[in-house]
Amino acid sequence: MGLVYAEIELINSGDIEMVRRSYMDEADIKRMKVNMLVDTGSIYLCINENIQEQLQLPFVEKRKAQLANGHIVEYDVVGPIDLRFKNRRCTTSAMVLPGDNEPLLGAIPMEDMDVVVLPQRQELAVHPDHPYFAQMKLK
């Protein structure tokens, strides 16, 4: 299986709330489409400093993470951030990788949006058993 990428729309959730409260115009919501590596081995959503700066996502906390090579590193966590993929959406936080490192779509947002990786076609897709809405397991 090769690498799988998907175009994900990232939106500053705070801006959405400001529009809801009539403090901001909808046209001013900070959003961008990003070609992200779909990484089922990663748990969290990871963006880079450039994305964080463009979306102006506020700092939430510092969190430690273990890399694939076993090293433990500490990264800033920002959010909330809305993700959109086809007819799916979720709201989460994101770890901020240094510089312009490749952004990663991890397992938690994928599970929340109820999407699956199709390895034969090397693509991310909405779950074929429920194509019209996300369905979650509660047990």
Write a structural description.
The protein is α+β, with helices and mostly antiparallel strands and 139 residues long. The chain has one domain: Beta Barrel (Cathepsin D, subunit A, domain 1). The protein is 16% helix and 44% strand. The longest helix has 8 residues. The radius of gyration is 15 Å and the shape is globular. The two termini are 30 Å apart. The mean pLDDT is 95.
Lay out the secondary structure:
Elements: E1 5-12, H1 13-20, E2 31-38, E3 46-48, H2 49-55, E4 59-66, E5 72-85, E6 88-97, E7 104-105, H3 107-113, E8 115-118, E9 123-126
Parallel strand pairs: 2-7, 3-6
Antiparallel strand pairs: 1-2, 1-5, 4-5, 5-6, 8-9
CATH superfamily: Acid Proteases
Mean pLDDT: 95
Summing up helix and strand content along with how strands pair, one would put the structural category as: alpha+beta
CATH class assignment: Mainly Beta
Kindly give the count of domains.
Answer: 1
Strand content: 35-45%
Give the fraction of residues assigned to helices.
10-25%
